[in-house]
Amino acid sequence: MNTNTRKKKRVDQIVRSIFLASTLLSASFIIIIVIFIVMKGITPFITDNDGLGVVNIWTFLTGTVWLQGTAFQSNLYAVGFIIVNTLYIAFLSLLLSLPVGVLTALFIAKIAPKRLAEFLRTIVELLASIPSIVYGLFGSGIILTFVYNLAELFGVQSKGGNSVLATVLVLALMTLPTITAVSEVAIRSVRKDIEEGSLALGATRTQTNFKVVLASAKSGIFAAAILGIGRSLGEATAVSLVAGNAKSGPNLGLFDITTTLTSTMLQGLKETTGVDYDIRFSVGIVLMIVILLTNFILNAVKKRVGNVNVK
Amino acid sequence: MSMSNKRKAIDIAYQAITYLASSVSLLALSMIVYFVWSNGSGLLNMDLLTKDYHAKYYNGEMVEVGDYSTTLRPSDLDDDIYYSEQYGIGLSDAKDREGNPIILVEYIASDSPMLKLADRNSEDIIALEEGMLISKVAFFDKATALRTFGAEYMVNELDSATDFREIVFTSLGGGIRGSIITTLYLIGMTMAMALPIGVFTAIYLNEFAKKNRITSTLRTLIDTLTGVPSIIYGLMGLAVFVPLTISVTPATSGNLISGSLTLAVILLPVIIKSTEESLKVVPDGLRQASLALGANETQTTFKVVLPSSIPGILTASLLGIGRVIGESAALIFAIGTAVKDDISIFGKSTSLAVHIWSMMTDEPANIELSSTIAIIILMIVLVLNITVKLLSKKFMKPMQ
Average pLDDT of A23-32? Predict the structure, then answer.
């Protein structure tokens, strides 16, 4: 009996340590990601890159041409304009997807008849589950043609539709379901008494929805926007199919070709050594920092405006 | 009264805007489905799933001159098919994707000498098959019949010659068998790695971990993974798993194992979260009852807690499979973009999603086949989603 109990205890200990080991492993990956990408990514700035010379970190962060000279024969890389492009495109796409998403969420949560609401919720879920490569395919098949024709209407010859606008539209479509779903949860969790108070004071249902419910849910809606921006900043394959791969910038015109941090990383990955390979990890570091900073700033803003404050 | 009428009009306008906004999602989904279906449904058939992607080239010659076909032109052959009685083959004119003329083999008689050709590049016997393309037939004593001269010319030249020097033909290619096999490998290997680690982690966090700073740090580290974009996972795969697999396996470049390892890390937070959620709804009474009856921690975990969390694990698995099928950016780095027909877990090849990316970045982009693959991906993702929804309706509610 005693030995049996001890044996059981021993098994418990082994099993528990396996569980602990799994947990430590799971938790370690984020550290591994950061360490390895940083290690690779700083190589161009601290070694002489096989005789090409050190990449100047200041010109890298502020420059307006991706690469001056030939790949593997130059150390003049720069992502300054790409950082601007990436943020510009992410915020423009949010400008489209946030109002549409929030209004859709309001419709589903408060206005639509139950059946229609359920139907739309399913549609949004399906949109959310479509892989980004399919959005990219749709973008290069339909949105590029649309943008090309639109540009022609304005007398602009766009490069096959590859443009800031096409990228913004694709990203707006991709972030729409996320924003809608998160906003809907926020809208539905608005306290009933706030709504009833508004109605009791004589406001109509619609006035209440727009002025009181949306205002009360703004913290959640802000969270949705932050998620949407995060997805836009990190999205890679769909963007690379419609951006047009600009080599210099910043590209602010709607019909100009553009490039983002992610699409730059996907461009012409052939060799597996040398500065042209390592520099992608440097772009990766920049991407992570851009995402972190954007999140941090937006969260700070959210804290300031997030409190329920109905006027 | 007029004030309230005005209010009503404004309210209706506001409501109309929400209707309009909601129609965007519906419109977007319909357009995506319509787009991939109208472009891709033409190629959707069983052949596509079993064929190779790359065309194969063959150079053949007659094994035995004079061994001709005796089959007459079958009556059910279409009018635009030209039939060579001597060689028993029916050919037609067609155009390839770039608009170049090609000659398509529509029919081969069972006694056609084209079924037993000597391969000029090896000792093998090769066969012309229906659906293949003939690029040219070269003769000993007259000019070569090129595909650009058309099917009628080629048939006439063949029938007026007793022998030919060589026939050059290609299999059509354009199939996605390799990418389907790759996707299945990736799903299998990824789940085999991610499921146990993810489930064990969830069990540890939910059942064993003390509520202290260390545990909450571990949780934060795992949660942070959720916000990492997949291209960053790809970089990690390239920097960590590719060199690792090269050093311990026969692989010499990015490979399916390095791809699966990368995908497994992507899936971990999903699996951990979903499993934990279903562990949370297991009532504590069950655990205490099991322990009180003399079972130890291990027995309680595996025989009482884990079975109750199976719906959650199943949900996580289905979501995981969907993620593997849809993932592209991470795999482009962690494996590569070369579309292959012969698949090895130690070699490069593309999943269905990366196959699309590979074709869309080619010049000219193959939108047709990309859309066909997209239809397949969408159908799988749709089924997975519906199953997840049904599962959560069926299992998650009564436990609460």
Answer: 95
CB A134, CB B378: distance < 8 Å: yes
* Percent with pLDDT over 90 in chain A: 59
What is the domain-level CATH number for residue A296?
A: 1.10.3720.10
* Residue A36, in any domain of the structure: yes
Cα torsion B326, B332, B338, B341: sign: negative
Residue A92 lies in a domain: yes
The structural domain count of chain A equals: 2
Q: Are residues B256 and B205 in the same domain?
A: yes
Its sign, for the CA torsion B359, B360, B362, B368, is: positive
Helices B352-360 and B310-326: crossing angle in degrees, nearest 10, is 20
Tell me the average pLDDT across A182-199.
90
Residues of A in contact with B25 (CB under 8 A): 104, 120, 123-124, 127, 176-177, 180
* Confidence (pTM): 0.88
| CA pair distance B385, B376, nearest whole angstrom | 14
**A186, A270: one domain:** yes
Tell me the pLDDT band of A311, cut-offs 50, 70 and 90: very low
Within 8 A by CB and 6+ apart from B234, the residues are B262, B329, B330, B331, B332, B333, B334
- Residue among B196, B204, B231 whose CB faces A23 most closely: B204
Best A7, A19, A86, A265 member to test B by mutation, with max B CBs in 10 Å, is A19
Q: What is the span of the domain harbouring residue B100?
A: 55-170
Residue A51: the pLDDT is: 79
pLDDT at A310: 44
Q: What is the mean pLDDT of chain A?
A: 89
A113: nearest CA in chain B?
B19
CATH code of B359's domain: 1.10.3720.10
Angstrom distance (rounded) from CA B312 to CA B388: 10
Interface test with B, best of A6, A25, A130 (most B CBs within 10 A): A130
For chain B, residues with pLDDT lower than 70 are 1-3, 395-400
Interchain CB distance below 8 Å, B231 and A236: yes
A173 touching chain B per CB within 8 A: yes
CB contact under 8 A, A137 and B367: yes
In this structure, the answer to whether residues A270 and A166 fall within a common structural domain is yes
How many CB pairs below 8 Å do chains A and B form together?
236
* Predicted local distance difference test score (pLDDT) of residue B159: 87
Same domain, B351 and B211: yes
Q: Nearest CA of chain B to the CA of A166: how many Å?
A: 15
Domain that holds residue A7: 2-68
Asked which of B103, B136, B170 is the last residue of a domain, the reply is: B170
